[in-house]
Amino acid sequence: MYLTSTLLLSVTALVSSTPTFKTRQTLNKPIFAHYMIGSITPEHTNQDIIDAQNLGLDAFALNLDSLDDWARNTTSHLFDQADTSGFGLFFSFDHNHFANPADYTEFLKPYLNRTSYFQYNEQPLVSTFNGEDVSNADWATFKEAVGDILLIPGFSRATPKLDFFTGREALDGIFNWNSWPAPGAGKANVSDSDDATYLTAAHDQGKLFMMGISPLQFKHMDSGNNWYLRGEGNLENRLEQVLALQPDMIELQTWNDAGEGHYMGNWWEEPIQNTPIPDYVRGYDHTGYWKVLAPFIRAWKQGETTTAGMVPIGKTVQGAFWHHAVTVDADCETDPLGKPRDYQNAEDVVSGIVLVESGKKGLVAVVTNGRKELGRINLSGGYNPFRFEGLGVGRVKIDIIDEAENVVVVGF
Phi/psi zone of residue 94: left (φ > 0), alpha (ψ -120 to 50 degrees), beta? Predict the structure, then answer.
């Protein structure tokens, strides 16, 4: 049992030991994780690759927002390590920094022939974060310069519509970056309506659609970077939506973006030192998500269209649960930034997913907060999401009990 959490979100793994997460790789059902390039040591990038492979991921989408030496060095040793490991990498160029793909054309060219550069149907994949303002002509020029690539940018500001690719013919697909409820939606769960529109638009034109999965967003760095995008109900609903919609590929948001709080893999101190980020993530591990993600990846690659096929890997029960580490109405007087924007969309709840082996009956999950029971759920074989209100001060714990009231698994 181990605890994983962030300042805003606590994530707890529910299993008595750590299994190995090898999954069968299925052609044309790839799943990636967004990976922020920083000044990361070779030892840490190598560990990231090992962990991602064990989890069942196919590649990292390398978010690159600089061509300075520190970024080139980290990129170089990632590719050196991936070339010998069988893991994939591809670039997601950050257009909050780059104005035009011409800015990185020459940088990209030599990497496209690397052993580890991820290909989809024999075409190297290239993506972005944003880039909505790039013209179709400039995208076409970029593709002519670098060769036969598969260009699937990630847009956060575009309007989803069925004729989305009219005037964007150079694109080979689209990645919808928005995997969280819009702030104006209030206390609502994430919607997949934009994803469905993009998917239809792409498939009608013989193009591809990439869908994102993320737990939440929380940034608390300065007055211009202090916000919350709702995580209550986000991950468990997103997993169901992805399996139902069956996009062409999936990207986890993210592996290591500690600054926005949605890291689902490792984060390391060296790229974020001398920033406020360690103050709100240090000591808060999110690898508890792996207990849910590994079975999800296996279900995805096996072609499952519902979460019913998500079962533990080598265990009777496994799962994870998450909650805020402070209540919504908490007053942190020493915090100079104050509460994040849209904090009022948060709720004092405990959410989670418990996976039970097929055919197993008679188990109940009991969630307590301090001395108070928040709720209980009768578990069935497969996927059991839960959400209980009333989170307050005190340790949160989940007990899995059998018909004789014996505790068989504990998570806290």
Answer: beta
Instruction: Quote the CA–CA distance of 34 and 59 in Å, as a whole number.
Output: 9
3-state secondary structure the chain: CCEEECCCCEEEEECCCCCCCCCCCCCCCCEEEEEECCCCCHHHHHHHHHHHHHHCCCEEEEEECCCCHHHHHHHHHHHHHHHCCCCEEEEEEECCCCCCHHHCHHHHHHHHHCCCECEECCEEEEEEECCCCCCHHHHHHHHHHHCCCEECCEECCCCCCCCCCCCCCCCCEEEECCCCCCHHHCCCCCCCHHHHHHHHHHHHCCCEEEEEECCCEEEEEECCEEEEECCCCHHHHHHHHHHHHCCCEEEECCCCCHHHCCCCCCCCCHHHCCCCHHHHHCCCCCHHHHHHHHHHHHHHHCCCCCHHHCCCCCCCEEEEEEECCCCCCCCCCCCCCCCCECHHHCCCEEEEEEEECCCCCCEEEEEEECCEEEEEEEECCEEEEEEEECCCCCCEEEEEECCCCCEEEEEC
**53: how many CB neighbours lie within 10 A of its CB?**
18
pLDDT tens string 34-84? 999 999 999 999 999 999 999 999 999 999 999 999 999 999 999 999 999
Residue of higher predicted confidence among 276 and 191: 191
Whether residue 21 is predicted with pLDDT greater than 80 in this model: the reply is no
Contacts of 197 (CB under 8 A, 6+ apart): 160, 161, 162, 164
Q: Which residues pair with 378 in a beta bridge?
A: 364
Q: What is the pLDDT of residue 337?
A: 79
Q: How confident is the model at residue 283 (pLDDT cuts 50, 70, 90)?
A: confident
CA pair distance 188, 133, nearest whole angstrom: 30
The Cα angle at residue 322 between residues 356 and 376, in degrees rounded to 5: 55
* Of the candidates 93, 65, 87, 89, the residue with the CA atom closest to the CA atom of residue 76: 89
pLDDT given at position 9: 54
pLDDT digits 0-9 by tens, 132-183: 999 999 999 999 999 999 999 999 999 999 999 999 999 999 999 999 998 8
Tokens of 235: 């991950």
pTM higher than 0.70: yes
